[in-house]
């Protein structure tokens, strides 16, 4: 995997996690908590995409 592909996967993971966290935060009326958890999940998801 090239360096550009790794950055793309990391960015997709963070964006996906932030989107999921924002959606959960709005639905559960605690945006700050779920957005931060979503970003953490996004970083983990991006790292998982880099392992292939």
UniProtKB/TrEMBL annotation:
The chain crosses the membrane at residues 12-28, 34-51. It comes from the Archaea. Residues 8-52 form the Glycine zipper-like domain. Keywords: Membrane, Transmembrane, Transmembrane helix. This is Glycine zipper-like domain-containing protein. It comes from Haloarcula nitratireducens.
């Amino acid at each position: 995997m090239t360096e550009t592909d790794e950055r793309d996967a990391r960015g997709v993971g963070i964006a996906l996690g932030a989107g999921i966290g924002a959606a959960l935060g709005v639905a559960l009326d605690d945006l700050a908590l779920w957005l931060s958890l979503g970003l953490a999940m996004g970083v983990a998801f991006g790292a998982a995409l880099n392992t292939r």
